[in-house]
Specification:
The chain is an alpha/beta fold. The chain has a domain of 88 residues: Sandwich (Immunoglobulin-like), CATH 2.60.40. The strands form two sheets. The chain has a four-stranded mixed β-sheet with strand order 2-1-4-6, with no helix packed on it. Strands 3-8-7-5 form a four-stranded mixed β-sheet, with no helix packed on it. A hairpin with a 4-residue loop joins strand 1 and strand 2. Helix 1 runs antiparallel to helix 2. The radius of gyration is 29 Å and the shape is elongated. The N and C termini lie close together (10 Å).
Length: 160
């Protein structure tokens, strides 16, 4: 192997090194609540989610303006609007029941409820040896051994 090839192999191996650690998975689902303007109701009017999930209040082109306000002020989509796109994520520790209303139409029964269940604890994974976050794909020792092998091979072939 000539020196140029050996340097190319070494450079290639160095490029392959890096952080290939698994990224944490995104958790949480999104549930959409819209408006049934025919009946002046939220649709659906009751949902069950899990801690970490997001509830998205979404409507557009409504004849009447609406909003969604939680009775204790946990979330509020703002002033009544004909188009709303508002999301709220229920973090860990927020399990419970959340009642909300459309302020202009509460008197005609435009109310809703979100039940937030506790996040389930995942079973602990088997204990693994500690690994640095920047663990290279190919350890530096492999690179050194490859270079040593390339130079030894070059000498055995009588090129140096």
């Amino acid at each position: 192997m000539n020196p140029a090839k050996a340097l190319f192999v070494a450079a290639l191996l160095l490029l392959l090194q890096g952080d290939l650690a698994a990224q944490p998975a995104q958790s949480g689902e999104t549930t959409v609540i819209s408006v049934d303007s025919t009946n002046l109701r939220f649709s659906p009017s009751s949902v069950t989610v899990t801690e970490g999930d997001t509830v998205r209040f979404f409507w557009s082109g409504q004849a009447l303006p609406h909003n969604a306000v939680e009775e204790n002020g946990v979330f509020d989509t703002g002033e009544p609007e004909r188009a709303v796109d508002f999301s709220f994520t229920f973090e860990r520790g927020m399990n419970g029941t959340y009642a909300f209303v459309c302020e202009p139409h509460e008197s005609v029964g435009m109310v809703g409820e979100i039940v937030v269940e506790p996040a389930t604890e995942q079973a602990p994974e088997p204990e693994a040896p500690p690994v640095s976050e920047d663990t290279p794909f190919l350890p530096m020792s492999w690179t050194a051994m490859t270079l040593a092998f390339a130079f030894a091979l070059r000498r055995l072939q009588g090129n140096g």
